[in-house]
Design goal:
It is a single chain. The chain is α/β, with parallel strands linked by helices. Among the domains are: 179-262, Periplasmic binding protein-like II (D-Maltodextrin-Binding Protein, domain 2, 3-Layer(aba) Sandwich); 274-361, Alpha-Beta Plaits. It has helices at 3-41, 54-67, 74-92, 106-115, 127-135, 155-163, 198-203, 205-211, 223-230, 242-247, 295-305, 338-350; strands spanning 96-100, 120-124, 141-148, 152-153, 167-175, 179-182, 193-196, 216-219, 236-240, 251-254, 264-271, 281-288, 310-317, 325-332, 353-361. Strands 1, 2, 3, 4, 5 and 11 form a 6-stranded mixed beta sheet that branches. The longest helix has 39 residues, at 3-41. The chain starts with a helix and ends with a strand. GO terms for molecular function: chorismate mutase activity; prephenate dehydratase activity. It catalyses: prephenate + H(+) = 3-phenylpyruvate + CO2 + H2O; chorismate = prephenate.
């Protein structure tokens, strides 16, 4: 068989597979519609339907990745199924998701990675605005950054948890790649300033010191804002990501300029619904302790005794008094797990205040 005939046969096979894939996706979508009908038919009077189940979606993605035998990577397969689930969920309910804007930020990229592109994503000017939109039920969920692997905690997010009574429903980990971007009018040999968010400038500090040591670094509210500015300036550049570059039609002057190749940011999904256990969960809490010798030891001791892994501890000043602090703690496990529940009960006996911010599935990828 000639190469032409081989290609023709393969294309016919691909067409047949595409038709089968379409048929199966359509069948899945019809099942999603039936799920919505069943939920609506069995609602108690005054009860609101819950269409989006974080624990269910996390299980589906992990299950698919376990079944995957290639040649597509597990991450790529999960991305495809995320979009299928997003489109099917939109047949039941179009989710509204607030994120730290403007358009083109890494937070928007995290929101789309977690929920897929069939949600209605709404940019907010500040982290506190994202919290307020969720509290007011103007949106179903919010997405906010909480920590970066290079620069550490995002304090505005931690402080907002002290002020608002919301739950963490999920997390997203996003590999952050920074690029040096210019507009069509930029004179690349005359760049005198580089715009970016303060954290991004810090994450690219060594690269900037080596390549643009004498150029002014200007911190702006977001990387998307930086990208927008350089579009109309001839002597500036921006550090931003792929989404901002595409949105504002910028050119890559240098790619992946972050100082650490594993540079990642963790984002939290905030909402009002509690998430049941999945068997692979994390829990976030806030604890305030009495100001006495050994207070931190007494706080951590129950976790050690119950063999609970703590993945993060941050300290923030509270507004209840001078030199008083709250500890933000992330731990492995669900707050309903017996060992975690026992540890929290012991801590609550000694702590001034203990608040479970939420238990949620670990980031899938």
């Amino acid at each position: 068989m000639s190469a032409t005939d081989q290609l023709k046969a393969l294309r016919v096979r691909i067409d047949t597979l595409d038709e089968r894939i379409l048929e199966l996706i359509s069948e899945r979508a019809r099942c999603a519609q039936e799920v919505a009908h069943v939920k609506m038919a069995n609602l108690a009077e005054g009860e609101e339907p819950v269409f989006y189940r974080p624990e269910r979606e996390a299980w589906v993605l992990k299950h698919i990745m376990e079944l995957n035998k290639g040649p597509l990577s597990g991450e790529e397969v999960a991305r495809l199924f995320r979009e299928i689930m997003s489109s099917c969920l939109a047949l039941e309910q179009t989710l509204k998701v607030a994120y730290l804007g403007p358009e083109g930020t890494f937070t928007q990229a995290a929101a789309l990675k977690h929920f897929g592109h069939s949600v209605k994503s709404l940019p907010m000017a500040a982290i506190d605005e994202v919290f307020r939109e969720v509290v007011a039920n103007a949106v179903n969920f919010g997405v906010v950054p909480v920590e970066n692997s290079t620069e550490g905690a995002v304090n505005h997010t931690l402080d907002s948890f002290l002020e608002h009574d919301l739950l963490i429903c999920g997390e997203v980990e996003l590999r952050i790649h920074h690029h040096l971007l210019v507009g069509e009018n930029t004179r690349t040999d005359r760049i005198t300033r580089i715009y970016s968010h303060a954290q991004s400038l810090a994450q690219c500090r060594k690269w900037l010191d080596a390549h643009y040591p004498n150029v002014e670094r200007v911190a702006v509210p977001s990387n998307a804002d930086a990208a927008k500015r350089v579009k109309t300036e001839w002597n500036s550049a921006a550090i931003a990501g792929d989404m901002a570059a595409k949105l504002y039609g910028l050119t890559y002057l240098a790619e992946k300029i972050e100082d650490r190749p594993d540079n990642s940011t963790r984002f939290l999904i905030i909402g009002t619904q509690a998430v049941p256990p999945t068997g692979d969960d994390k829990t976030s809490i806030i604890v305030s302790t009495r100001n006495k010798p050994g207070a931190l030891y007494e706080l951590l001791k129950p976790f050690h005794e119950n063999g609970i892994d703590l993945t993060r501890i941050e300290t923030r000043p509270t507004r209840s008094g001078k030199w008083t602090y709250a500890f933000f703690i992330d731990l492995v496990g669900h707050h309903q797990d017996p060992l975690v529940k026992g540890a929290l009960e012991k801590i609550s006996q000694e702590a001034v205040a203990l608040k479970v911010l939420g238990s949620y599935p670990k980031a899938v990828l």
